[in-house]
Amino acid sequence: MNPVEEHIFRQTEPYQSMMLYVRDVLKTTLPTVVEKYSFRLPFYHYNKKSLLYMNVLRGTDFIDIAFMDGAILEVNFPQLKDHNNRKRVRSIQYKSIEEIDTALLQQIITAAAQLIDTGNTTKYK
Known about the structure:
The structure is a single chain. This protein is of the alpha+beta class. It has a single domain, classed as Aspartate Aminotransferase, domain 1. It is built from 4 helices and 5 strands; from the N terminus they run H-H-E-E-E-E-H-E-H. A 5-stranded antiparallel β-sheet has the order 1-2-3-4-5. It is globular.
């Protein structure tokens, strides 16, 4: 088992199932995504750039799917939130696996990858 899998399997339910599901959606949507364990979190890289990471924040009841260039994406995806006043990162949060809108998640993942492809990752508010 790699460090990302170990991290995910250490999570309690329902977080473990949600993280596994999001991981599957991500790998299906972007088959070339590279999974790394950085800062004690599962990070996903696309074309050698950080795309997103997953986290269960202490004291919360949701998983945080944090998009590195979310500040740019939030214009088209108002579902992305600025949790903890972050300059660049925006996230979508899920409390249950039933809440996950797979089509929307795939759209956000694809849009984030397109930002990397076009090099349009430096325009923040």
